[in-house]
Amino acid sequence: MFRTEFMRHLIPTLLVLAVLGLWSGTAAAFFENTTVNPGARGMGEAGVAVVDAAYAPMVNPAQLARTTQGVGALSYMRPFGYDFSDFMFAGAALPVNQKYGSFGLAISHFKVSYEDTDLLSETQVSLGHGLNLFSDMHSTVDFGYSLNMYNVDLGETVDEVDPGSDSVVGVDVGLLVTVHKRTHLAFRVHNINNPDIGLDNEELGRRLTAGVAYEPYDGVVTTFEFDNELGQELQYHGGVAFRVVEGFMLRAGMSTNPSKLAGGFSYALNDLSFDYAFSTGGGTLDSTHQFGLKFAWGGEAQ
């Protein structure tokens, strides 16, 4: 009887610790870097220089300046295929005018559940703004920033102690330089204000991501980027996307530290498109499969 009761309390705790360890590589880290865009995941998790405004508030807010229409996106995945965790994203971008640029709003939610009880809940809400700084017939320079509200809520411990919840605000800044409409150079600084969260004042990851994307001709995109989180090993990401037939694109890519392979596709019909992508687990872990839906209204498609 005692053993059964002990295991009933122990399993939820182990689930939270396991997911935090697998999700981040450290045993107690919140809001680790997550690929919210299935299109980016299919290209080796590289997206800082590939314009996709619906995801821009959490990827590179400077991309918001490039949209000329309203766009929205949804995505969903279960990290490494575990049925006790879920990650969901919703985002949208809306252009205002040339002077004030475009605004975007995005929300992501990650949770770990056991027997209909949420053991860990992480919610991020990002408000982004992107505008053009310079433009001529050969090049453009776009700048953006995001205000990120982070909220973490932990379930009761084995001793039925409620750790409660905490919230904090982080700031991202990004730049996107486009040369001859085919080459995009970009970078993003994530959590530039060095926020911390929780009673232990755990620092949220500060990171610099920089990359390049090249479109040699319509329907083909190649991209490469590096991702440097303070105190962590440098990561490299790269991939390619190419149109097979009208509306259907294939993607492939890879990343390092840990080494992963990735791939996926998208199918677009008018202003609606469906995305699927996967990335391997980087070792003995199972692959992550991500699904997305994107829609647009008004203006000219981006």
Keywords, please?
14-stranded antiparallel β-barrel; single chain; 54% strand; globular; two-stranded antiparallel sheet; 302 residues; mainly beta; 11% helix; 3 helices; 16 strands
Biggest sheet, open or closed, and with what strands and sense?
14 strands, antiparallel, barrel
Class of secondary structure makeup: mainly beta
Which regions contain 5 or more consecutive residues with pLDDT less than 50? 1-28
How much helical structure, as a percent, in the residues? 10-25%
Percentage beta strand: over 45%
Tally of extended strands?
A: 16
Query: What's the SSE pattern?
Result: HHHEEEEEEEEEEEEEEEE
| Number of separate helices | 3
User: How are the strands of the biggest sheet laid out side by side?
Assistant: 1-2-3-4-5-6-7-10-11-12-13-14-15-16
Shape estimate:
globular
Kindly report the average pLDDT value: 87
Gyration radius, rounded: 20 Å
N- to C-terminal separation?
61 Å
How would you portray this structure in words?
The protein has helices at residues 2-24, 38-42, 56-59; strands at 70-77, 85-97, 101-114, 117-135, 139-154, 164-179, 183-190, 196-197, 202-203, 207-214, 220-229, 235-245, 248-255, 260-269, 272-279, 288-297. Helix content is 11%, strand content 54%. It has a 14-stranded antiparallel barrel. Strands 8-9 form a two-stranded antiparallel sheet. The chain is built from 3 helices and 16 strands. The termini are far apart.
